[in-house]
Amino acid sequence: MPQHKSCEKRMRTSSKARSRNRLYRSRMKRAVRDVREAKSPEDAQNALKVAGRLLDRLARKGIIHKNRAADRKSRLHRVVKSMQG
Description:
It is a single chain. It is built from three helices and no strands. The chain has helices spanning 5-36, 41-61, 66-84. Helix 1 (5-36) packs antiparallel against helix 2. By secondary structure, the chain is mostly helical.
């Protein structure tokens, strides 16, 4: 257990942040999965818009690195393009 007040607060805030980040990460995984498992190219395109916005938001908040977000978006674009072609 923490011995100092500041450590107690740090424990509380890091616990909240950890649970919030877990929520965001699971949303991200679900959005990426929706793109990959889309039945039609139109569904994939719509899911790609949602996933792209979510990845950008997570990168802006610092939950994932901006290069990782860009890499994920690039790979998803390739998946959607292969569905259309």
